[in-house]
TrEMBL record:
Residues 264-310, 635-661 are annotated as: Disordered. Residues 397-524 form the AAA+ ATPase domain. It comes from the Eukaryota. Residues 295-306 have a biased composition (Polar residues). PANTHER family: AAA+ ATPASE DOMAIN-CONTAINING PROTEIN (PTHR46411:SF4), FAMILY ATPASE, PUTATIVE-RELATED (PTHR46411). This is AAA+ ATPase domain-containing protein. It holds the Pfam family AAA_lid_13. Residues 266-282 have a biased composition (Basic residues). It comes from Hortaea werneckii (Black yeast).
Length: 661
């Protein structure tokens, strides 16, 4: 018998009942017919003990023949035009058939396990079914390393007349593939192959990628970098083990047992082979025959019986065949790096992250410091091959780099550039992510450090002042916070960056644990021009044909002494540019609207031009705010930091002067 999970061969050891429309027998009629008249059966039935079996088999064949022929006369014309009547759906949706279904707008492939129908009170077979219930399965992974089955269910409600097969919520894959010349199949294969290859690349079962699609778990849409990780996901997988009764009909497929527990089936004298848990008004046909004209709807599978106990075996990703790649479930749990939340992503909207040197090139670091950062960063990629100098196992195996200097000089951008250059996830944490009490800090740090180690991520604790400050005799709460951070940092095995603009307040214990410290000075006029030019290049690359900064406007911000006197840092420069663009876009829309009212135009211009006046107005507002804050505090930020002992921006700093273009 072919793949027919509803009817494992072990169920035929005792007396069984097969209800009309006799699906399992109709689907195997040709085999029954061939066997009755074959030489093999002649030899088999020549034995006296088998004479009764022979007689019964011939009676069964004679009984089924008119039913089968009547069904063929009705089904063949429909199959020729890829249409079907509702009461014949069970025939084309045969167990073992590959079918396309749509989940959250994404097509994917499942294998039919069973088809059952709920009937009206008249109880006429198939004629009075209100809807078909199709049980299917596909392949999913719980740990990113091995695959297991995932069950699905779809319903097809009753309809009148003929209906196009491709319009059904469950469509045989062979029908759709014939209509589009295999385009959908190629799309599904390509998507699933990229996903599996991504999971296999690091051999750890997770995938760093870019996502631009719906957040299926939480609603809304997400655009940004994510880490697909099944094992560490906090999303409920709703995993349910198969019961002993279910196991036999959900057993072997493609000669591999997938996460199935050994069946424990009690011996019974009489057993019906209709589906377990079937309600009284349910029937259970499946689909397809062996007719040559409909063979494309009925792929054959290995004999899938469950004879006795089996051991649990999982299918490794490297063992997956092309056909099994088709069956991958099109959703996965992922961690959004920007929001630091778990979500469910659709694999149809996932793309790989290509290695880019743009960010690292936009950094200006002392060459020796840049080499040291790269060396420490690359060491983490070598995992077990790197040597640890500490005599205590697991201690001091990570790399800790401290970035210190005034706000807006490129500390955070340095870490972002390093992570892009390494093509590794960036976990950027703040006090809000870690907490401020000793118990919370230690627990949260364990969670984030574990994720960073699992993903080989670059870990950044931004504005880490509260964790780095000196301990004091009377502040036990503060001391506990710093101690907890030190304790966890000591055993972290990854790449950790800490940033602060209050380096003078760092506890001495941190100083001895830092592998390298990079100091950033206030931006010079040359570096400020580099920052402006870097933003202009980025704007031209990403918004070409939509936004244009005028030549005079560029000259103004790059050469004006008044602009230089404002002493914008990198973050403030970005904000000024974004505000000037927003102002130019708003005025363009207003002008287009006014022109439209006069009948000369009805839409905004194709290209928005940012002029010098836009920058002047925004910079004037920024200058007023700077002057106001300085007047209140009587000192600028750099002077206040020096008085508090946080830092001295006029002194020479450590290993490097970091600058972002």
């Amino acid at each position: 018998m072919d793949y027919y999970p509803q009817h494992p061969t072990s169920s035929f050891d005792d007396e069984v009942t097969i209800e009309e429309p006799f699906a399992v027998l109709i689907h195997h009629f040709q085999k029954i017919n061939e066997f009755v008249f074959s030489e093999e059966s002649s030899d088999y039935f020549s034995q006296p003990a088998q004479a009764l079996v022979c007689a019964h088999l011939k009676i069964l064949r004679d009984f089924l023949k008119p039913i089968y022929e009547e069904l063929q006369s009705a089904i063949q014309p429909a199959i020729q035009v890829n249409a079907i009547k509702f009461d014949l759906l069970w025939y084309i949706l045969r167990p073992g058939t590959d079918v396309y279904i749509i989940t959250d707008g994404i097509p994917h492939v499942c294998v039919i396990e069973s088809v059952s129908g709920k009937r009206k009170k008249s109880m006429k077979p198939t004629k009075d079914v209100k809807k078909w219930s199709i049980r299917m399965w596909c392949l999913d992974t719980a740990d990113g390393l091995t695959m297991s089955r995932k069950r699905r269910r779809r319903y097809i409600k009753s309809f009148n007349g003929m209906r196009d097969m491709v319009s059904l919520p469950v469509c045989p894959a062979s029908v759709w593939d014939a209509l589009d010349a295999g385009a959908r199949r190629a799309q599904v294969l390509r998507r699933n192959s990229e996903y599996l290859d991504g999971l296999q690349n690091n051999q750890k079962g997770h995938m760093h990628c870019f996502y631009d699609g719906p957040d299926i778990e939480n609603g809304g849409r997400h655009r940004g970098k994510v880490v697909i990780d099944h094992e560490n996901s906090e999303i409920d997988k709703n995993t349910r083990f198969l019961s002993p009764d279910e196991h036999a009909k959900f057993a072997k497929y493609d000669n591999v047992y997938l996460r199935d527990q050994p069946p424990i089936i009690p011996k019974r004298r009489r057993r019906s082979v209709t589906p377990p848990y079937r309600r009284k008004r349910s029937i259970s046909p499946a689909s397809s025959s062996s007719s040559s004209s409909s063979e494309n709807l009925q792929p054959d599978y290995p004999n899938n019986q469950c004879e006795g106990p089996i051991g649990k075996k999982e299918l490794g990703l490297n063992e997956i065949t092309e056909h099994q790649r088709l069956l991958i479930w099109p959703q996965a749990p992922a961690f959004a790096l920007s929001t630091k939340k778990w979500m469910t992503v659709s694999l149809g909207h996932v793309s790989r992250i290509e290695r880019s040197d743009d960010s690292i090139k936009n950094l200006q670091l002392d060459p020796s410091a840049a080499q040291i950062i790269k060396a420490l960063s690359m060491q983490q990629d070598q995992s077990g091959d790197s040597w640890g100098a500490d005599f205590i196992e697991g201690k001091g195996a990570g790399q800790v780099i401290l970035l210190h200097g005034p706000p807006g000089v490129g500390k955070t951008y340095t870490v972002e550039g390093i992570s892009e250059w390494l093509r590794r996830p960036l976990l950027s944490l703040t006090v809000a992510d870690i907490g401020i009490t000793e118990d919370t800090v230690e627990q949260e740090l364990m969670k984030w450090f574990d994720l960073a180690e699992a993903w080989n991520a670059v870990l950044l604790v931004d504005e880490a002042d509260i964790f780095l400050e000196q301990r004091k005799n009377r502040d036990l709460s503060r001391n506990g916070l710093v101690t907890a951070f030190l304790r966890r940092m000591e055993y972290f095995r990854g790449l950790l960056f800490l940033t602060t603009n209050r380096v003078g307040q760092i506890d001495d214990a941190f100083v001895s644990r830092v592998h390298m410290a990079i100091g950033y000075k206030k931006l010079s006029p040359e570096f400020r021009r580099n920052i402006w030019e870097g933003f202009f290049r980025k704007l031209e690359r990403e918004r070409a044909g939509k936004v244009l900064v005028g030549r005079s406007a560029k000259k103004f911000v790059l050469t004006s002494e008044w602009v230089e006197e404002i002493e914008l840092n990198g973050r403030e420069t970005r904000n000024v540019l974004q505000t000037a663009i927003a102002l130019a876009e708003f005025e363009s829309i207003e002008a287009a609207g006014a022109s439209g009212e006069r009948g000369t135009a009805s839409a905004s211009p194709q290209v928005v031009v940012v002029e010098e006046d836009h920058f002047r107005r925004v910079l004037k507002m920024s200058e007023k705010f700077h002057d106001y804050v300085t007047a209140i505090r009587r000192e600028d930020e750099s002077q206040r930091a020096k008085v508090r002992g946080d830092r001295d921006d006029d002194a020479k700093v450590g290993a490097a002067d970091g600058r972002s273009k």
